[in-house]
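INFO worker-7 received task bundle
INFO bundle size: 2
INFO processing item 0
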Amino acid sequence: MSNTYLVALVGSILVLAGIVELLRRRQLGEKYAVLWLVVGILLLIFTVFPGLLTGIASGLGVAVPTNLMFFVGILFLVGVVLHLSWEVSRLENETRKLAEDQAILRLEVEQLQRDKQENVTD
């Protein structure tokens, strides 16, 4: 076994262990859990079986297996960024609606307090 292989294997195991630990501590949401577990497992599989990436690349007509890995990685990251942008937009809309609802409730509470004070002074 070469040093590069051992470093890659240890790195893959650490990434997968980190993902599992984030899930265990509930710091990674369930909706992202499957996605990141699949990424961690695929990383470990391609580390343990390096010829697999070469076989897939040649099957798809990609000359350099690393290029395929980077292409798939970039597509994955673009998908993650797009999804997170959608989530941020949704949360911004929800935050704005909650702020509007809270302002309406505050106005109603102030009106009730004024009405109550007027009734007490009468």
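INFO item 0 finished
INFO processing item 1
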Amino acid sequence: MNYLIYLAYGSEAIRCEACYSILSYYEQVGSPAPDTQILVYTDAAAAFQQILGSRPYISYPAVSPEQWQAWRGAANKVYLLKIGVLEHAAAHYPGNLLFLDTDTIWRRNPTPLFAAIAAGHFYMHQNEGRLINGNTLSRKVYRHLKTHEWEVAGHTFRVTPETELFNSGVIALRSDKAYLLREVMTLAEQLYATYNKHMMEQLAFSLRLAAEGPIADVPDYLWHYWNLKEARPALVQVFHTYGTHPSAELLARLHQLQLPRLHEQELAYRNLPGWRRALRKLVGRRWRLPPLEV
């Protein structure tokens, strides 16, 4: 079996993002295959069912408040919830697991990905390059961590000039590799204790999976608009206005927000040399999210 896994815990905006991603998946695959199921880990299953209806291939695993808290780990970080979700999925839904963040839009049918996962490949969303010459935060993390090392399950992990950081908006592995997840959690907790930055969770995945085998990325399969948190109110408004309309109309309205195009524009601005961004701010030409028509 193949499983698409979403973690939609907390705000209405996150639930709306997840619904958009699920609708975009159905748009790519047409009729869902009986060997592929969607698992939505959420504290508000009824809100999903109100929008998506009762679909035979979507399940909402029950999670207690105590379990949600336990999944935050010793570091008490919301970022670590995805590790607990993946462990739960591996234990209760064995097969090929493909976790993705809610702020994603499918652009291709993921069937080839599932075939590669079944063959033993690991996937994360995108290779963001070596820490040593990445963005400002990556370079800062490298400088802070390069003299440390961490012991996990007989492995010694270090940050070196060769260490690559992968975006954890997608995490894919076969369920029989689930033992790695407990080691990722242990490593992440140590990394947070060493340097309390949000990206320690994705660094832990990057380090541990890379020690097991090569990590491939999937940017051609979906858009991951992680840099557009400001667009969330407009996304929520679309669901308030069109959430009870037919799925095709709702999806068309969501596409009209043009989030992939805005994602690329903001990313291009973010990747400008620092002096160019400073100059654009000085002359009032910094990138801003344009008004979104709903």
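INFO item 1 finished
INFO post-check item 1: DSSP finds twelve helices and eleven strands in the chain.
INFO post-check item 1: The first strand starts at residue 2 and ends at 8.
INFO worker-7 idle
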